[in-house]
Write a structure and sequence with these properties.
With 90 residues, the chain is largely without helices or strands. The chain is 9% helix and 7% strand. It is built from one helix and two strands, in the order H-E-E. The chain has a two-stranded antiparallel ribbon.
Length: 90
């Protein structure tokens, strides 16, 4: 059986177009032996100035993170802790 470019329909007898390597309008062929990646950009050497902290970071540093007990804890006869909620909460 013959090699055919397209098998279906009336284009089954066509062959792929040939390329003339000596044609000056064509770009030169790619060199496949060289790697395709580009070198990394040069690193910036020198002193780097740290950015000032954002508003969120400043608030986090200044907020009070201590926990304070507002109501005394007592133990129920069943052994469960009970907390008396003062009326000032309501």
């Amino acid at each position: 059986m013959q090699n055919q470019w397209l098998v279906s329909g009336r284009l089954s007898g066509l062959k792929p177009p040939s390329v003339d390597a000596d044609d000056p309008s064509l770009p030169p062929p790619a060199d496949l032996t060289k790697p395709i990646f580009s070198p990394p950009p040069p690193l910036m050497l020198g002193p780097t100035i740290p950015l000032p902290p954002s508003l969120v970071e400043r608030i986090r540093r200044s907020e009070d993170k201590t926990l304070k007990r507002l109501a005394p804890v007592s133990i129920a006869p069943s052994g469960r802790p009970c907390v008396l909620i003062p009326d000032s909460v309501f």
